[in-house]
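Q: Can someone sanity-check these two? First one:
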Amino acid sequence: MEREFTEQELVRREKAKNIREMGMDPFGHKFERDSFAADIKDKYKDVPHDDFENMTDTATVAGRIMFIRKMGKASFFTINDKTGDIQIYISINDVGEEKYELFKSADIGDIVGVSGKVMKTRTGEVTIKCLEYTHLVKALKPLPEKFHGLTDIEERYRRRYVDLIMNEDSRRVAFMRPKIIRCIQNFMDNRGFTEVETPVLTTLLTGASARPFVTHHNTQDIDMYLRIALELPLKRLLVGGMEAVYEIGRVFRNEGMDPKHNPEFTLMEAYLAYSDLEGMMDMTEAMYTTIAKDVVGKMTYNWCGNEINLEGPWKRISMTDAIKEKTGIDFKKEMTLDEALKLCEEHHIPVEEHQKSLGHIINLFFEKYVEETLIQPTFLYGHPVEISPLTKKNKDDPRFVDRFELFIGGKEFANAYTELNDPTDQLERFEEQLKERDKGNEEANDIDMDFIEALEYGMPPAGGIGYGIDRLVMLFTEQETIREVILFPTMKQK
């Protein structure tokens, strides 16, 4: 394929050719470094300028050139490694004419290695005085202009590699995310949980209400789904006696894209035998505050225009009480479906055919009047049985189930249950889901008879919870769109 190059790209390719003619590989080899930019700057930041006269400390670093100020026989340039920037001073007297000429041919974006003496300029900037200069990689494309970077947001996500080079905040988020996940893993491990892996490919839609991605298994000649949840395999492990299990993994839902949703995202689900809804609330609050203290170092976050305070105790309120606070309507009272539908009509709430049940109507009122008002961390519990097919019914009022959702900033962050372990009840719930599918609910669950059989062997009473890891990372990094916390989000075709 014939390509057209800009003038800058042609000049850089010519420089790469010249480097090769000098007997060097323009695209480099292994380089041993012993230091990183941030560590050097932190170690020497408080050392007075005059003290460096008697010091012989050296460092070897490598990174991408981000700034050059050429000044005849001596120059300054800045390189960037994964920890940040550090300034380099280079002189023809220190490295010799050949290496200095090599440096002078360098462009912003090139990757180089530097060994030298640690010093501090008169302006107080920790600097490495270059004694050995090594060309490593010639950048054939110029970087975007320093102060604007990639101004097209879509291009930032498409060319994340350039965004990471130019955007310090993007690098901060990229490095923060795995630290948060590692903190979650340590938190769960310390509570006696075992991290496991379950299948990504499945033949049934279970564990969530979502439309799937469909693929095909050639050997068996069957269509399969990419998983939409982690739930049922993990519960099988409770039956098998593992008692406390969790998984952090990708799930796939064939749905729209917006600032809070990506078709593939990271989900964590955890199940604890002999626990319940209250246990999941306590664990969740403790996990969030642990991340806040141990990873980020603060308890208050500015997110989506709200100041969020994670200091506990967090509010706990039932769905019906929350609706009553906003509308005055008490859905705990006995009510016929006709009465509920009349309320929908009075409040201009449309109801689809598969939503014509009291439970669905309660949820519609919640979504219209309550959801976006739950700004500070709130555990909302007591969902109607119709919208919670995998949850144990409340022993005092079987119209509702022992389930909660965690809301922060008006958005759902977690979904938890006192798990349903009655196989007869579970089968009836699955059958109700099929009836909803016949009425047009494309997200209804399949019947998983193997799971019913597993429950018939006996699953201990348990609490279970699912966390959207991407949204959690959005909060802790104070990002308003999911695309900022996923390195390679799904993008529309150009």
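And here is the second, same format, sequence then tokens:
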Amino acid sequence: MSTSPPSARDLVAEPTSPIRIPDFRRYWLARFIAVFATMSMVVLIGYQAYDLARSDYGYSPSEGAFLLGLLGLAQFVPLLLLTPVAGWAADRFDRRVVAACANVTDCAVAAALAWLTYAEALTLPIIFTLAAMHGTARVFVGPSMSAIAPNIVPPSLLPRAIAMSSIAWQVASVVGPAAGGFLYATSHWLPHAISAALLVCSALLVLSIRPIRAEQDAEPKHPVRQMIEGAQYTWKQRFLLGCITLDLFAVLLGGATAMLPVFARDILMVGPEGLGVMRGAPAIGAAVVAIWMAWRPLANNVGPKMLWAVAGFGAATIVFGLSKNFALSLLALVLLGAFDMISVFVRSSLVQLNTPDRMRGRVSSISGLAISASNELGEMQSGLAAALLGAVGAVVFGGAGAIVVTMIWAVIFPELRRAKTFAPEFLPPQVEAQARLDAAKELSHES
């Protein structure tokens, strides 16, 4: 095995912070403006659908709430169908190109919304179609963007990079919906037009990152077999499986965001401006926690802390559902986001640090599917529950359900309670032995 002399790049000292890496700065900015654009767009799609249902179609509040649940389902169906393909694409092709194409698709959705809103031609069937297109774009951008970070950041800096990436997501989630709400109050089409322009900028920034191609399997395999391998890997990692499913079922029950248009219009009566502020409130709490973790990443007792955080998420959801005061509702949403960020950090760090690069896209797509299922199907569940219990009853029921799920998962996944670090020491012996064997095989192929 021959060795080549070190290049100038190799002689440069390893950076002490992800932000010192030019590619990561481009990645961070691309993520920020894309989330800014899509969060503004998604929040306003929900408000426009609910407003049309109430004003033009004569729906009652409960019928409008059920419609919001169906809107979430329309976004989730493409995610469910295309997740295996998206994960395989992120591992098979240049991840930058996959992410950029997805952003361009979302740009087309935003541009259509801007034009149809301006022309006053928007209808509920059109909104549902565009929501499905947005879901299709999201399923491809998620795993490709998640898998890029480990390719441009040294492993020692990856936890901090994950926290900084979460800051971009959460800050954009605050600013995007708030800006979209205020712009919508001024001119209904303008926020969608701005979202379209920002998504083009995000795609160009991603393409400016140095070329990235995932490590390939030593022996070529059929795409379907590669998709199955990603699911098998996730299933064998008990702690990873527990984290993903806990987040799935807890947020599926406890998600209150689908009911925010109802609370903004009919309960707290704060209109689209208040909706934007409420939609951004969870991201404020999440951003504060992310900033703290970028400075001092979570490293000890990760399992118990995640369990307590999910229980806190459920409790904050109950407080929001019962509140009739706008300030208290905002505080509950801030706490909800802070607790959720802890779970996100644990899950993201585990996926990135314990998954071979050649499988990161596939495993990230499975994790992304769980997140999307908890969000979009959570909206569907909330809509159904609201039709039966009312918006307040649905949110309170969901928060209590999240707490119950946490207690159940602490019993059926004891690995979560025993997990001290992100290292694989808490895995069953046979799984750990297989992981070591796989690592040895990869090392022999590289040699």
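A (reply): Looked at the second one. The chain has one domain: 18-213+222-446. DSSP finds 16 helices and no strands in the chain.
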